[in-house]
Amino acid sequence: MGEKRAYKPRKPGGGRKKLKPEYDAGKNLKEQMESAVALYNSEMSLQAIGDELGLNPIKVRKLLITAGVYESEVAEKVQDTFEEYRETQDYKTAILSTANTLQLSKASVTSYLPYKKGVYFPGTADKEKISVGAERQRRYRAMKRWRADPTEENFWGVVLAYAGVKFKTYSGLSFSYEVRKGRNGEYTKELWIDRREKSKSLAWSSIVLALGNTKGGVVDRPKALGDIRGVTYIYGMFYRFGLINVPDEVKEMMKKQKRPKKNKNNENSDPK
User: Fold this and answer.
1) From CA 31, how far away is CA 29, in angstroms rounded?
2) Which of 63, 71, 75, 58 is nearest to 39 (CA)?
């Protein structure tokens, strides 16, 4: 056997050079996500978006989930189950546990989860930029905290965590809300409903009143929660929070993409 060669310490910055140093996976993923969201908002199907961007529909769906704009019962169930396991298990084990619990393949579970790295999405205007996965985990923890200790303060935490998330009204119209800060830097107890036109305010007291009227089970219509200003929006929020169930035909309405009518007498004009 020949003599061993003397060890030469590696120079800083050494190692294999990147074949494409200009390639930035995170940047590319973010650009794909933004393009997919823009097309999705124009009411294109996943297949059509995939054809436009040269991606398969499953990747398109994952991009939209990462951006926080894609909603489905399966996606919600997969993500909630995964987050629950993630509290006590590492990422890979949590995926396997979720797959076993929901009787899905590992690939199916992964396809319904947001990308772990490279993509960041803004929360509300008052939040610093965090990943969508982190933002979703924040909502999950807020809801879990309230269910364990259903105080008004903890429910306010849930409402804050869901600011900027898309909801659907009873008739399937999409909306979101924001919570603004006052001059003292504290959040005001008022939600501003964004329906693409002039924002409408929703008082915290109205939400608390409706919360007291929830009895579980199926709630046929918004007015069943009380004759409360803004109850149309509260109904959609409570369904998304999992506080109430709605009739099957209402679920179908909520799944559909529906554009707001340009009519002064529609839901845009008076949040009831």
Assistant:
1) 5
2) 63
Q: Which residues contact 36 (CB under 8 A, 6 or more apart)?
A: 49, 53, 55, 60, 63, 64, 67
Residues in the chain: 272
Q: Within a domain: residue 163?
A: yes
Element (H, E) at 242: none
The angle that helices 25-41 and 46-53 make with each other, rounded to 10 degrees, is: 130
Over residues 112-168, the pLDDT tens digits come to: 998 875 444 433 334 444 556 667 777 888 888 898 899 999 999 999 999 988 899
Closest CA to 161 of 211, 124, 198: 124
Number of domains the chain contains: 1
CB 257 within 8 A of CB 205: no
Q: Which two tokens stand for residue 241?
A: 């929070």
Say if 213 falls within a structural domain: yes
* pTM score over 0.70: no
Structural domain contains residue 267: yes
